[in-house]
Amino acid sequence: MRPAPHGGGRTRPYRLSRRGTGGLPLREVRPGRGARDGGGGVSAYAPHPGRFAGRKAVVTGAGQGIGLAVARRLSAEGAELVLVDRAEPVRDAAAGLTAHAVLADLETYEGARSAIDGSLDVLGRIDVLVNNVGGAINFKPFTEFSAEEIQAEITRSLMTTLWSCRAVLPTMAAQGTGVIVNVSSAATRGVHRIPYSAAKGGINALTASLAFECAEHGVRVVATAPGGTEAPPRRVSRGTPAPRNAQEKGWFEAHIAQTLSSSLLKRYGTLDEQAAAICFLASDEASYITGTVLPVAGGDLG
């Protein structure tokens, strides 16, 4: 959702709602400088033309949400792209960006290897990998999770990134250069999504350890930790079941309330804000940054 335009020298408040969660109202907030400055200038998150000229980039989970926003920005900044997702809508996204699409399920090493091999077939090399697959499936107290549900959360939100890192690193090490940007989460501390929190904590550890191990090969490994982010309704469901009763609805709403209260700015971020941070870390402007997890969560440090 874009901030409301300025008018009469004053900013106008606008209402945010968490899409895909029943449109729960959050609160009135004042827009920042995300869309235009007071003089009608360029967006604070406008792409930097040519920043990725000649670079070959792969974005996973690129069919919607943050992944699609990152792909659009990288394309606008000159990168040649492969968009990876497990669902058909990624083909439409790629066509809209004159990019390549690869369908793959990254929950297995074989799927990740297939995605990287397919990307190399069309790109020749990989300079940037953005690992964006993940997302909480269930929202309830830890003791309500079955063993199968816990495993599903870890597989979705940790193993997809771990397998993709394992698949791409031999190529980047052989090149002597490369950047991996992992999309973690500020929800490493939160209510009613503990398996997801554990998975994202694992991504933070993976990022730090891989950066230490891969530096000698010229490969940087970094991450962002997004907080709550406004996005259109999902084109492909994560499989989150609808609440069956008032108790389950209360569990879900508690996690929404905690997400908002943890943000010092008391609002959700935008897809542009998340993509801007990810692309910065992937760029040469961040050439002396590795092993770092950058919170992009309005002050919520997880």
Helix-strand topology string: EEEHEHEHEHEHEHHE
According to DSSP, the number of beta strands is 9
- Overall structural class, as computed from helix and strand content, comes to alpha/beta
CATH-defined superfamily:
NAD(P)-binding Rossmann-like Domain
Relative strand content: 15-25%
Tally of separate domains:
1
Radius of gyration: 19 Å
| Annotated CATH architecture | 3-Layer(aba) Sandwich
Please name the CATH topology: Rossmann fold
List the strand order in the largest sheet: 5-4-3-6-7-8-9
The shape, in one word, is globular
Note the quaternary state here.
single chain
Verbal overview:
It is a single chain. By secondary structure, the chain is α/β, with parallel strands linked by helices. It has one domain: NAD(P)-binding Rossmann-like Domain (Rossmann fold). Helix content is 38%, strand content 16%. The chain has seven helices and nine strands, in the order βββαβαβαβαβαβααβ. Strands 5-4-3-6-7-8-9 form a seven-stranded parallel β-sheet, sandwiched between helices. It has a two-stranded antiparallel ribbon with strand order 1-2. β3, α1 and β4 form a beta-alpha-beta unit. The chain is globular, with a radius of gyration of 19 Å. 43% of the residues are buried.
List the helices and strands and how they pair.
Layout: E1 14-18, E2 24-29, E3 56-60, H1 65-76, E4 80-85, H2 89-97, E5 100-103, H3 109-123, E6 128-131, H4 147-175, E7 178-183, H5 194-214, E8 219-226, H6 246-262, H7 271-282, E9 293-296
Parallel strand pairs: 3-4, 3-6, 4-5, 6-7, 7-8, 8-9
Antiparallel strand pairs: 1-2
